[in-house]
Amino acid sequence: MQKDTLCLGLLSLGPRSGYEIKQMFEGPLSDFYSLSFGTIYPTLNKLQDEKYVSCKQLSQSKKPDKKVYTITKKGKDLMKDNLLGDASAYIRSGNFGDQIKSEFFLLLLFAKYLPQETLDTVLNERVLFLRQKLEQFKYDGPVPSDLQALRNEKSVAFIRGLATTLIESGLNYMEKNRGKLN
Amino acid sequence: MQKDTLCLGLLSLGPRSGYEIKQMFEGPLSDFYSLSFGTIYPTLNKLQDEKYVSCKQLSQSKKPDKKVYTITKKGKDLMKDNLLGDASAYIRSGNFGDQIKSEFFLLLLFAKYLPQETLDTVLNERVLFLRQKLEQFKYDGPVPSDLQALRNEKSVAFIRGLATTLIESGLNYMEKNRGKLN
DNA sequence: GGGTATCTATATCAGGTTGATATATATAAT
DNA sequence: ATTATATATATCAACCTGATATAGATACCC
Predict the structure, then answer these.
(1) Is B41 contained in some domain?
(2) N or C, which end of chain A has less CB nearby within 10 Å?
């Protein structure tokens, strides 16, 4: 999916600044996708130039100004078109896997070159990290409106359930089988 | 982990050509990490220049020549040093998650903009793909020596078990809950 | 008050990676 | 003979990331 479509998609959930879009990528979306500032800001400028989004400069008390982008009718149309094209391309591509770079799995793979103690720490930290992730996905209390917009999506309920299941079974496996690494 | 260390790590399992390293990234390693030819070939050349690997040009019947790289003592030392540094950096970084770009999850996220039929196809293809992956991870019969070298690693047994568990629980969840997307 | 740290916010850019493309040998199929 | 496919190496434009710069504002501490 191209960055344009992705930014439009996130803006379709409600008006946001570039900084807030980045925050979504660092928060709940981090497990599925991410974009850097160096991609987000130029993309928003381009989308604005081409009238797919409108922009309001907003003064804030206690914080610097921010530029809040709102998706336009033209933007929504482009987003839907692109999404349809992306889905078709995905199906035609024949490649249904995800693109992953996992430092953790590489370290595991070369575990025999690491001191036992280092490997233990790596595993312990990963387990703690996953437990935290699990709590986040399970948490159902109040959240900022950014996240609430995501949470209201029917699809997000499905995704959160899937993530919870995956993390739980992963943790379970690791706790039962980590002895096999020694 | 830098590409140098990764290539050295894979060569530590046995001598290989750049093409064969790429095949590993497209095969069993694809779920954890990948590098492109544009990264692999220059890295091997650099490693050879600096004597971390040696290279033998090999004539093959029925196939073009290939350059087979073998890790040197100097290379193994560098690899172990770097691995140790990477593990420490991983621990110190405080970021224990993986870097993921998932077209599938993005399409799910914006499911409401897709026709039911398209979404169904996306899900069906993903399920078929995961079933295939599962078979691959479970398969225990004879494989080419490249893969056998990987399989003999104690850590790979752990990783294969983990992957199997994750895919199985993911498939299970998707089959039971996909109705929630409608 | 001054120093420092942190958070919000936007922007830019060098450096590195990808995905595409080029080239070449050899087999197999049509 | 032509096309397609697999092996094999190499290069490069286009793109993205991670780092860095800049700046307003709050907060803490001595």
Answers:
(1) yes
(2) C
Any strand D atom closer than 7 Å to A177 CB: no
Domain that holds residue A175: 103-181
- Answer whether A162's CB lies under 8 Å from B170's CB: yes
Is residue A118 located within the same domain as residue A165? yes
Tell me whether residues A98 and B100 touch, CB distance under 8 A.
yes
Give the position of tokens 């929504």.
A76
Cβ pairs bridging A and B (under 8 Å): 222
> Tens of pLDDT along A120-129?
999 999 999 9
Positions on chain C within 7 A of a protein C-beta: 7-14, 17-21, 24-27
Size (chain A), residues = 182
Do A71 and A32 reside in the same domain of the chain? yes
CA A19 to chain centre: 14
Q: In this complex, which residue's CA is closest to the C1' atom of nucleotide D20? A: A38
pLDDT in tens, B138-177: 999 888 887 888 888 999 999 999 999 999 999 999 999 9
Task: State both tokens at A79.
Answer: 């987003």
Cβ-Cβ contacts under 8 Å, A112 against chain B:
153-155
Do A53 and A71 form a contact (C-beta atoms < 8 A)? yes
Distance of CA A78 to the CA centre of its chain: 22
